[in-house]
Design a protein that fits this description.
- The complex is a heterodimer of chains A (434) and B (354).
- In chain A, the strands form 7 sheets. In chain A, strands 3, 4, 5, 6, 7 and 8 form a 6-stranded mixed β-sheet that branches. A 4-stranded antiparallel β-sheet of chain A has the order 11-10-9-32, with no helix packed on it.
- Chain A is built from 4 helices and 32 strands.
- Chain A has 2 domains: 37-157, 3-Layer(aba) Sandwich (Rossmann fold), CATH 3.40.50.10070; 166-428, TolB, C-terminal domain (Neuraminidase).
- With 434 residues, chain A is mainly beta.
- Mean pLDDT of chain A is 89; it is low at 1-22.
- Chain A is globular, with a radius of gyration of 26 Å.
- Helices cover 13% and strands 45% of the residues of chain A.
- Chain B has a domain at 278-350: Fusion Protein Consisting Of Minor Coat Protein, Glycine Rich Linker, Tola, And A His Tag, Chain: A, Domain 2, CATH 3.30.1150.
- Chain B has 5 helices and 4 strands.
- Chain B is mainly α and 354 residues long.
- Classes of the chains: A mainly beta (434), B mainly alpha (354).
- Chain A binds chain B through residues 22-23, 25-38, 68-69, 94, 97, 99, 123-125, 156-159, 389, 407-409, 411-412, and chain B through 268, 271-272, 275-276, 278-285, 292, 303, 306, 314-316, 319-324, 326-327, 329, 342-343, 345-354.
- Strand 2 (33-34) of chain A pairs parallel with strand 1 (280-281) of chain B, so a sheet runs across the interface.
Chain lengths: 434, 354
């Protein structure tokens, strides 16, 4: 009896073993090519009077392309133009070897109200991954499109998308020798939909987003001296937070939004100070005869990085938020300045100058490796997207400043839509609170 | 014969001479009767000399006388020859006789020798018989002696027996007295002994029963052991046979499996290449990622299902792996049914670095 039991056990073991052996066939795949994932974004259908107010499909495709993670098919390669899942013949798209397909349509639901519907498909498995119906008003259609991009990005990469965010930058329009207009503008992450929040005949510099995305700190010379303002983006209300003799510049919000780091030269050479926004208490962080400026907070709020020429040329240093000894972080090249810390705190983007060329470079804090991600020759003001996947910076193109993005690692670089005048000092805003 | 010849050389010489003469005569063709005598003697040569008659007459007479003399001499000689021949014949006869005599004598001698041998044999036989007789007598004597000895021994034994009987009688008489004296004590002792013996017997019986039971048990155990051993041997033999069969089947299966495996391996290489070509990794994915995709194929090589069974933790990376499998479809599939079965379900492990 017991023997039979053991025999049974043995047989079971053998069966399981053989099944296990079948399942054990594993084919190792190594290599592959790093590249953008092929995707098809079909122009959205339109059900309403006249022309589709915003080409939602195109906004989505451009967003995805700009991320460097996706390679949308060119419009001419689209074999069909379905707008709903019912109209999709997956075989058409399998032939094109695209992994995913986005279809959608915009429906007018009122004089200035719309309903945007889209579906994301897995082409090979022939199934829908996500599908949403989003109501919008006319001015909001681009925002809805960016929101759709975020949803697609999130479901395909697993990371939060940063398309439906805003950027701030300064434009300089030299109308004549004595008539130069400086504007502080806020636009969508793709540069579209710009809005001027401050206009001045005097220079505006260093816009910085508050962590909640509701306020901007910036430097304005409107009173013929440098002052640091904080302005509510929506209402336009603003106030001065620093107006000291000498330089008042480079404001930077702490991650909790309660403090503002800045550069002041009121006590001699420019040094880093921290202003407690609720109490107005100002604390000096660095005290060095050299120039210390361009502070940026680490995500944990416990330390800051800044630019200092205490070693001769400008280099990036790190210092505790409580002060103390600063630690030099950059050693490659004779010019490293204007640090922007990645959201996860693992990388620092900066302007890296060497041989008369200034490019955006990224320092991997773990390995200490510095990698150049932009072409130059005169790139400046790097700013990480809130998901860390891209860097926004200012570049010189045709003798004027333009905005450009580069995906992390420098694989996909793209200039944003041309603005009026000379564009500089971009800052990528935080995620929008949902 | 040579001996004879040596003994009588002259006779031989004569015989030879006679024979030679006879032979010559035969050749010359002389007539042995008296008229043919011219050549037989030493006739003097004729001398033809012319003489006067007287002389001739005288010579004639002389001649006649000489011829007469001559005749006589020839006759004489012939006689003499006859005599010689006769003598030779006689000699030969004598010789023959002598030879016969010799032969006779030899035969006699042989006869005598034979007789002597026979006599010797007879004598030997007689001797042997005598010896046998002597031996028999000796044996008889011995037997007689032994019989005598035996009789003597018996007599002695009888005497001894008588002596012993007498002693025994005497001893018994003494013993009887003693016995009777001891009997009472003995009886008592015997009662005790009997009791003890009974106990002992009882004990022994019990022991014996126990021994027997044990022996039986032992026997049964041995029997059982033997039976088990037999069964074990049989079982082992069967197992060995089964094992052999299984081994053979295994060998055949292994052979087939090898062929299948070879084909499978070729297709694995082809599949790997095709999937690798179709794998587009997301840019900027961190190092050290790895995911496992479980794949089910339909016979044509198309992907029925591709599912992440071990995630890299990076959805984009996982998705790129699944997409690579689908993108590579249809995957190369072997035609051998067993090989194809092996390729129905398997896993891909995606790792960027080799």
């Amino acid at each position: 009896m017991r023997l039979a039991f053991y025999a049974c056990l043995l047989m079971t073991g053998l069966l399981l073993g053989s099944r296990g052996a079948d399942a054990a066939l594993t084919i190792q795949i190594t290599g592959g090519t790093e590249g953008a994932q092929p995707i098809a974004v079909v122009p959205f259908g339109w059900a309403g009077p006249g022309k589709l107010p915003t080409d939602v499909g195109k906004v989505v495709a451009d967003d995805l392309r700009r991320s460097g993670r996706f390679a949308p098919l060119a419009d001419k390669d689209l074999v069909a133009h379905p707008h709903t899942g019912d109209e999709v013949n997956f075989q058409n798209w399998r032939v094109l070897r695209v992994d995913n397909l986005v279809v959608g349509k915009v429906q007018a639901t009122g004089p200035d109200s719309y309903n945007v519907q889209f579906q994301l498909f897995d082409v090979f498995q022939g199934r829908q991954i996500i599908g949403y119906s989003i109501p919008a008003n006319g001015s909001d259609l681009r925002g809805v499109a960016h929101h759709i991009s975020d949803l697609i990005y999130k479901s395909l990469t697993g990371e939060r998308g940063a398309f439906n965010t805003r950027i701030a930058y300064v434009t300089t329009d030299r109308k004549s020798k004595n008539d130069t207009v400086y504007e502080l503008q806020v636009a969508d992450s793709d540069g579209f939909h710009p809005q001027t929040i401050l206009r001045s005949s005097q220079p505006i510099m260093s816009p910085a987003w508050s962590p909640d995305g509701k306020q901007l700190a910036y430097v304005s010379f409107e009173h013929h001296r440098s002052q640091i303002f904080i302005q509510n983006v929506a209402s336009g209300a603003r106030h001065v937070v620093a107006s000291y003799p000498g330089i008042d510049g480079a404001p930077a919000w702490s991650p909790d939004g309660k403090r503002l780091a800045m550069t002041l030269s009121k006590d001699g050479s420019p040094d880093i100070y921290i202003l407690d926004l609720s109490t107005g208490h100002l604390r000096r962080l660095t005290d060095d005869p050299s120039i210390d400026t361009e502070a940026a907070w680490m995500p944990d709020g416990k330390s800051l990085v800044f630019t200092s020429d205490r070693g001769g040329g400008p280099q990036i240093y790190q210092i505790s938020a409580d002060g103390g000894q600063a630690k030099r972080l950059t050693f490659d090249g004779n010019y490293n300045a204007g640090a922007s810390v990645s959201p996860d705190g693992s990388d620092i983007a900066m302007v890296h100058g060497s041989g008369g060329s200034y490019q955006i470079a990224v320092l991997d804090l773990k390995t200490g490796l510095l990698q150049t991600v932009s072409k130059g020759p005169l790139d400046e003001s790097p700013s990480f997207a809130p998901n860390g996947s891209m860097i926004l910076y200012a570049a010189e193109h045709g003798n004027r400043g333009v905005l450009a993005t580069v995906s992390e690692g420098g694989r996909a670089g793209q200039r944003l839509v041309a603005q009026q005048g000379d564009v500089s000092e971009p800052a990528w805003g935080p995620f929008r609170t949902q | 014969m040579w001996q004879v010849l040596r003994e009588h050389p002259r006779s031989l010489l004569y015989a030879l001479l006679v024979h030679l003469v006879l032979l010559a005569l035969l050749v010359v063709g002389v007539d042995w009767r008296p008229k043919a005598s011219a050549t037989a003697g030493q006739a003097a040569p004729v001398q033809a000399v012319v003489v006067d008659q007287a002389k001739v007459d005288a010579e004639m007479r002389q001649l006649k006388r000489a011829q007469s003399e001559k005749q006589t001499q020839a006759e004489e000689r012939l006689k003499k020859l006859h005599a010689q021949a006769e003598k030779a014949r006689q000699d030969r006869l004598r010789e023959q006789r002598r030879l016969a005599e010799l032969e006779h004598k030899r035969q006699q001698q042989a006869e005598q020798q034979k007789q002597a041998a026979e006599q010797a044999a007879a004598k030997l036989k007689a001797q042997q018989a005598a010896e046998a007789a002597r031996l028999k007598k000796l044996k008889d004597d011995q037997a007689a002696l032994e019989a005598k000895n035996k009789a003597e021994q018996q007599r002695l034994a009888k005497l001894e027996a008588q002596r012993k009987a007498a002693e025994e009688a005497k001893r018994k008489a003494a013993a009887e007295a003693k016995r009777k004296a001891e009997q009472e004590a003995k009886r008592k002792a015997e009662a005790e002994a009997k009791r003890k013996a009974a106990e002992e017997a009882k004990r022994k019986a019990a022991a014996e029963a126990k021994r027997k039971a044990e022996a039986e048990a032992k026997r049964k155990a041995a029997e059982e052991a033997r039976r088990k051993a037999r069964e074990e041997a049989q079982r082992k033999a069967e197992a060995a046979l089964q094992q052999q069969l299984a081994a053979e089947q295994k060998r055949l299966a292994a052979q087939h499996q090898q062929a299948v495996q070879s084909e499978v391996n070729q297709y694995i290489a082809a599949i790997r290449q095709k999937v690798r070509r179709n794998w587009i990794r997301p840019p900027g994915t961190p190092d050290g990622l790895s995911c496992v995709v479980s794949v089910s194929l339909i016979p044509g090589g198309d992907v029925a299902d591709a599912t992440i069974v071990k995630s890299s933790g990076n959805p984009g990376f996982d998705r790129s792996a699944v997409a690579a499998v689908y993108r590579a479809a249809p995957l190369p599939m072997p035609s051998d049914p067993d090989a194809m079965n092996q390729m129905r379900n398997f896993n891909f492990e995606f790792t960027p670095e080799s």
